[in-house]
Amino acid sequence: MTDSLGAPNDASFLADWATHSAFGAVPNTNGVDRQAGSAADGAQRKWFEQLLTSRGFTVLRDEIGNQFGLLELVPGAPYVLTGSHMDSQPTAGRFDGAYGVMASAYACFRAADALRADPAAARYNLAVVNWFNEEGSRFKPSMMGSSVFTGKLPLATALATPDPQGATVAEALSAIDELGAGPVFGSGTDRRVASYAEIHVQQGRSMEEDGVTIGLVNATWAAHKFEFRVSGEQAHSGAALMADRRDALLGAARLVVAARELVDEFETGQLHTACGELNVYPNSPVVVASEVQLLLDLRSPSSEVIRAAHASLMATVERVQREDRVTIEIVAEHAWDQNPYQEEGVELARAVAEELGLTHDRVMTVAGHDSTNMKDQVPTVMLFVPSVAGVSHNLEEFTRDDDLLAGIAHLSGVVAQLASGALTAE
Amino acid sequence: MTDSLGAPNDASFLADWATHSAFGAVPNTNGVDRQAGSAADGAQRKWFEQLLTSRGFTVLRDEIGNQFGLLELVPGAPYVLTGSHMDSQPTAGRFDGAYGVMASAYACFRAADALRADPAAARYNLAVVNWFNEEGSRFKPSMMGSSVFTGKLPLATALATPDPQGATVAEALSAIDELGAGPVFGSGTDRRVASYAEIHVQQGRSMEEDGVTIGLVNATWAAHKFEFRVSGEQAHSGAALMADRRDALLGAARLVVAARELVDEFETGQLHTACGELNVYPNSPVVVASEVQLLLDLRSPSSEVIRAAHASLMATVERVQREDRVTIEIVAEHAWDQNPYQEEGVELARAVAEELGLTHDRVMTVAGHDSTNMKDQVPTVMLFVPSVAGVSHNLEEFTRDDDLLAGIAHLSGVVAQLASGALTAE
After folding, report:
1. Tens of pLDDT along B92-105?
2. What is the interface pTM, i.e. ipTM, of the complex?
3. Which positions are annotated as binding Zn(2+) 1 (chains A, B) (predicted)?
4. A369 inside 8 A of chain B by CB
5. Which of A266, B124, B177, B191 measures 20 to 30 Å from A294, CA to CA?
6. Contact indicator for B247, B232 with CB cutoff of 8 Å
7. CB contact under 8 A, A278 and B280
8. B237 neighbourhood in chain A, CB within 8 Å
């Protein structure tokens, strides 16, 4: 063992990582299909439980299926929690989320070694978390497990949420035996979270291009997300006169195109827009659609850009309603300004990177993470490692082994610091 | 009984029509949901079988679930076949197809009375048909039953066709006990079809506007139908740089918009375009779509317009592929020129309308009908009655009782003429 925060576990991490990536692997690709509450998710959780218990952790799951591995170093003390999510999009890379959970486990293994070697430094206990349903592809909304954990989403609402086939979260979690009886932390328990750390692959390519190994995440982009319902009128798609039609799919298509064209109204990189989900009713070859539901997102590093883009989009909505004779309703919307992480956490992560000689830079995250929920409750550190070409939500997502291992070394240092009381001095 | 081709059965038709419209009725609307092979389709078929047998018909179904009611007046002679389809779109009007089957039954009842009263006039037997799956919403393609019947679609292909949930045609027909063991007409049987007649509500509003009660259908519009597959690349819908994206849904949306704009390149009424079905993969809130499948139709009374519109659409396909960095493949396409009905059938229908004092005019059909298949095999007559405001494939589709009854009187006359040898003199 060369150094308690160094490389001793690197080989075993890479071996475990290879095993781990086989759960839900999509044949003949490098990626996975491991949606929340699926059989593959269940199998992976059982394997992960064995890994943690073999290292002396106690594994518990809470009433929304968050999986926790607990290691008590200081009897009765609060916990440093670190983790991410093992669920994936339907056809996705093997790193997104899963790397963060595995890195957290290994960071705890190393931090525990360091703290056992220096018991006086240990102020908190350690816990790894595998949050339930961060992706939100099978069950909406995303970040479900951490949202329930932080009180932002009612438990009953989450448990009753159906997937497209009608199976609820409660049913899916029961089917894989991962529905706990109650909370593991907080009210009704004798456990409390002192601080939180998370590491994730960057879902972008700036760090790779800039030669940065550790991303110190200092803020989330501003965003405005919409669920639109476009309503028209069913008609025979051949026989109805064009002038008589009120085509919901045409209206929806105009919004999809308008969202892309909106980007060109701003400087390059200042606005990202997307529509990833769109459902047509009745979706029949010879019927003009009467209703289309679609999700449309605006994202920007600048809250001002979001507001200007929002105004432009609403003008398009008015024009499409008028010209295509459809009704466009906003069924739901959710907006947030640029959302900072605590500066103290960014500075702690910077200091650890300096000490380890790892290149680092501040980066913003475009995507949301479970840490977005946790940082509103406890001191939080959010870290990135690079992703080749920024490929994300894609079977070919890839991060080099060197970067995976550097991230673990860094997170180990952060967790050890947090467990010694950094960020939580009272 | 006032007249064998007249009004004696009108009251019983209207009563039976009301009963019939309750099968698959959508609560609190005037419409139905009675997709092919559904429980409602099965229940309606059992009821229709009882109606036919109570009038002395023998009911048989063939190996693709076409339901036939046979009435032998001239032992061993070929049959005049008349009918349409009882299946519907997912939320549809109660007249589309179903009126044609019920009108055919009542037309046969009346024609049989007339022929029994004048046995020397009877040259052929009578048969009513309820074609399986004309709509093609649950199982593709449309006009499945008549396509198999006329040898245009292999039986095995049709039986193995899955619905979106994976149930095949064979399984759906077996589940409602409507899968026959073999053919009812043609090879392997001792029955032959001499001629065919069909009546349908117009899926347009020209007859209502022109005050025409009987439409003498003389041709089907030209059409070019496409199934496109737009391929891009999965990416994180927030984080991926806009310039890096290859968004399949954006490409598909541009095609939907282009199809509508194409209409404006031609004179009003010369081109109808539509996209009724569009499916997104992976259809997840935070994933740029990698694949979209969509159906796009061009229809025109003019084959020249179709060819010009096709060329313009292909230019758009090239532009979208280049500008949006997606691949657009034509998975399937099917084109036909303006397709005439036999002039002798149109003239027969005109003469019957004259005799009955019903207003009439030649009309083209934009939509396909089972008669489109049958007219390639035997002398065929295709008729329309008006539809209020041309509302079609819509819960609020409506045709007035007077027009329903006038259509039956007219079809009764046509069927009696056909059974006496009109159009089939050898």
Report:
1. 999 999 999 999 99
2. 0.88
3. 85, 96, 200
4. no
5. A266
6. yes
7. yes
8. 274-276, 297, 393
